[in-house]
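To whoever is on call:

I kicked off a structure prediction for a single chain this morning and the downstream step that reads the tokens threw a length-mismatch warning. I double-checked the sequence; it's 72 residues and nothing unusual in it as far as I can see. Pasting both halves so you can look.
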Amino acid sequence: MALAVECSELLEVYQWASEAESESEGAPAASEEIADIFIYLVLLSERLGIDLLSTAHEKVTKNETRFPAIST
């Protein structure tokens, strides 16, 4: 549940911000929330015995196959 809360806090950074505000003011606050999310993901993956980086690489490869880039 803590992971969901941290994700919500990241969304809150941008909830009422304009595009310009998001780019100029959002980064410092967003970086804090992203770090919190990362920490909880690492802890969860360790508890479940998941190699997070390996799994992420596998998922990127799978997504590239499922959703190939459209060449123009």
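Update from on-call: the warning came from a stale cache, not from the record. Cleared it. Sanity check on the structure: Residues 25 and 60 are 30 Å apart (CA to CA).
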